[in-house]
C-alpha cells in the first residue's frame, strides 16, 4: 500500500484474513492507520493483537448477549491498554442505545464511536436519506458514552464491476450522495468528522475523490480469482493465498481429469471455483503462467472432492520428476496442487491457521521467456486465524 498513490488514510479490512498477526504487519509496515472488523469475533482478535484503532464496519444486532459481548470486548481493550479507539456502524436508534449501554458498563475511555452507515447503492444495510442520518445524529448526541464518528459509505457490488469506466461512474454517484448528505447535516448543526468506505476494487477512486478521508481495502492482501477478473485491480496486486490439495484419483479420466482431496469442506465455491496456480512434485514447485492456468478447470465434486480437468492436452510427455511446461497435463497420484480461491474472505473462514511459505531463494530459478518459475517452498511460520460461528 505504501507504494500506491493514495491521498487518504488506509484502514485495512481484517475480514480478509481474521488474523491479528497480519493486522500487526499491516499497521506496522503497510501504512494502515487501523483496521476494520466485520464481526465481533474479528474485533476480539484485533484487540488481542493490540491494534490501536478498530472500526466494526457492520451493525451489531440488538440483543442482550451481543451487547454483553461488546462490553466484554471493550473491557478487554482497557485491560490490555493498547486499543484506544473503537467505533461501530449503526443504522438505527436502538443500536445506538446498545452502544451506550456497552460504553457505560465498560467505562471505555472517550466513549464508543457510532459510524452512521449510509446506503450508497448496495441496498443492504444503512439508511437511505439525509433526514434519516440527521435523526441518528440526534440520537447519538443524546446518548451518553457515544459520539458521532462519521459516515460509512461502502458499496460492495461496485468492487466486482469489471469495466473500470463503469466502476468510476458508479463511484462518482456514490461521492455525490455523500457530499449531499454531508452538506445537509452541516446545515443542521452536525459536522461529519470522517467519511470511510471503499474496497479493493474501488479504493483508488474513492481515495482520489476528495470526499473520503479513509478507505477500507481488504482482499488486496491476498487477491483471488474474482478480483483477478478486474484488469486494473489485477495489475496492482498478485495472488498470495493458496489452497493446498493432493491428487487422490486419476481413474476418471487419466491425465486429462484428476480428482483432488479438497471439496466443499475445504474450498468455498460460492464465489466461483478456484484456479490452478502451481503443481508440486517431490521437491519441485512449478508455477503456471496465466496461459497455462487457463487450460485447467476446477469443478465442485462434492463435500470432499474437487475435479480438475485439463482442457487442452499437450502431446509431449516427460519422465522428469518435476512438471514442466510440456507436461503440465500429466498430473499423477500424490501430486500437490496450489489453488487460488474464488474469493478470499469466505475461504479464510474455513481454516484455523495460515501456513506461511516462502521461496528458498538459493534454488529459485526463472524459466526463460515464459514467466513461470520453479523451485522449493519452505515453511516459515504458522499464523492463527480467529474465526467463530455467529456474530
Describe this structure in words.
By secondary structure, this protein is of the alpha/beta class. The chain has ten helices and 19 strands. It has a nine-stranded antiparallel beta sheet. The protein has an eight-stranded parallel β-barrel with strand order 1-2-3-4-5-6-7-8, surrounded by four helices. The longest helix is centred in the middle third of the chain and has 24 residues.
Question: What does the secondary structure layout of this molecule look like, with pairings?
Answer:
Blueprint: E1 9-13, H1 20-29, E2 34-37, H2 40-48, E3 53-56, H3 64-80, E4 85-90, H4 93-106, E5 112-117, H5 130-141, E6 146-153, H6 164-187, E7 195-197, H7 203-207, E8 214-215, H8 231-236, E9 243-249, E10 257-260, E11 275-281, E12 284-287, H9 290-293, E13 296-300, E14 306-310, E15 336-340, H10 344-348, E16 353-359, E17 365-366, E18 373-375, E19 377-384
Parallel strand pairs: 1-2, 1-8, 2-3, 3-4, 4-5, 5-6, 6-7, 7-8
Antiparallel strand pairs: 9-10, 9-15, 10-14, 11-12, 11-15, 12-18, 13-14, 16-19, 17-18
Number of discrete helical segments: 10
Class computed from helices, strands and strand pairing = alpha/beta
> What level of helicity do the residues show?
25-40%
Q: What string, H for helix and E for strand, traces the elements in order?
A: EHEHEHEHEHEHEHEHEEEEHEEEHEEEE
| Terminal-residue CA separation | 29 Å
- The proportion of strand residues reads 15-25%
Overall outline = globular
Mind summarizing the main beta sheet? Answer: 9 strands, antiparallel
Question: How many runs of DSSP E, i.e. beta strands?
Answer: 19
